[in-house]
């Protein structure tokens, strides 16, 4: 049987580890022997339910679900292919069948929360001083109150105050405002005696707050890699980094490289929505973690900037990327885009701006120049 087991391959993602199955031990012990530390309060005894793994390929050749798995895994978990690593063994009665199955016979995804190993995702590098000129700016205003002699509407009075504040930047006929913000103006304007802070994207008002919140002006920059994602929370006024977080890209559940993910989309169009959903979830998790580091609300983030290769760029936007993988390797769009955050389900200020930097050509994206 030993010679036969040498033909059985197990791939672990997203950490890109491949092993040749050699003997009848649990997946938990296989990971331990590889030096891959995973979460398990009970040390593999089947009493904590923490060592959840996702079987992406080969489920039919594993031993049946155990009592602990029926206890700790929900029905939805079981249907999706989740198992407990400490309870999962390759069925020895099916070894002969496995030898003739295409390799790798098993593909197992290790969720980010399961892994304890430090994969040392690069989050720092060389930097150089640049002159800041953010697209999003905040201005504190003391707006003139209306009167019978000057019954000027709320928005017009805010425009007038902005022109006084920044005469070189604004002209009355250029100032616009989000429709959603209009409904909040009456209350916010009168909450603190007409003292407000306007958040502008160029000449367009995207937010109005009572009082002076000029200092609370944040943006977040993401580098979406095929395997890893890094996010930097930045104060847009001074360029200071207030938080950094990274994680493994959960899209690896669909394939380690972009070609595999393109194939998944080509074979089933719904996979594009699934890939988009998992990367948005990853980004939102990073947003939450960096906001905790800075002790701010995600609603104080008014802009997100995204770089990544062309396939990651398209999937993030929910745009079908399959033609990038076919000669002559044509993307749907090359130039940079500005999109409202709520349209992409990104958990920053709902009318905040999401800027996707322009890609270059083929598979070469903005991550190449966005350094």
Structure, explained:
- The protein is of the alpha/beta class.
- The chain folds into three domains: 108 residues, Beta-grasp domain (Ubiquitin-like (UB roll), Roll); 75 residues, Ubiquitin-like (UB roll) (Roll), CATH 3.10.20.880; 151 residues, Domain of unknown function (DUF4445) (Nucleotidyltransferase, domain 5, 2-Layer Sandwich).
- Helix content is 26%, strand content 23%.
- It is built from twelve helices and 15 strands.
- The protein has a six-stranded mixed beta sheet with strand order 12-11-10-13-15-14.
- α9 crosses α10.
- The model has no long low-confidence stretch (mean pLDDT 85).
Summarize the structure.
It comes from marine sediment metagenome. This protein has 371 residues and is α/β, with parallel strands linked by helices. The protein has helices spanning 2-5, 27-33, 67-72, 75-80, 95-99, 154-165, 179-182, 185-191, 258-267, 270-294, 310-317, 341-344, and strands spanning 9-13, 17-20, 52-57, 82-84, 106-109, 136-142, 176-177, 195-201, 204-210, 218-224, 228-235, 241-248, 301-308, 337-340, 353-356.
Strand and helix map with partners:
Elements: H1 2-5, E1 9-13, E2 17-20, H2 27-33, E3 52-57, H3 67-72, H4 75-80, E4 82-84, H5 95-99, E5 106-109, E6 136-142, H6 154-165, E7 176-177, H7 179-182, H8 185-191, E8 195-201, E9 204-210, E10 218-224, E11 228-235, E12 241-248, H9 258-267, H10 270-294, E13 301-308, H11 310-317, E14 337-340, H12 341-344, E15 353-356
Parallel strand pairs: 1-5, 7-9, 10-13, 13-15
Antiparallel strand pairs: 1-2, 3-4, 3-5, 6-8, 8-9, 10-11, 11-12, 14-15
Helix pairs in contact: 9-10
